[in-house]
Write a structure and sequence with these properties.
- This protein has a two-stranded antiparallel sheet. It has a two-stranded antiparallel ribbon with strand order 3-4.
- The two termini are 18 Å apart.
- The protein is 15% helix and 31% strand.
- The chain is an alpha+beta fold.
- A hairpin with a 5-residue loop joins β1 and β2.
Length: 59
């Protein structure tokens, strides 16, 4: 599965991994079980910050 993630920095300097997927776009009600199952797909993966080569673990 091709996953599109972006790593950003919040105003406090903490790194945040954004999962860019339109799977839930346009839904009017959150289906929390569906969201939980979706997020579990990313557990155990690493993303790398290109500028610093720092690795972010998604656990």
């Amino acid at each position: 599965m091709d996953k599109n993630v972006t790593i950003i920095t919040d105003p406090e300097g903490k790194k945040i991994v954004l999962i860019n997927d339109i799977r839930f776009k346009g839904k009017r009600k959150e289906e929390w079980k569906e969201i939980e199952d979706y997020l579990k797909e990313y557990i155990g993966e690493y993303s790398e910050i290109t500028e610093t080569a720092e690795k972010i673990y998604i656990g």
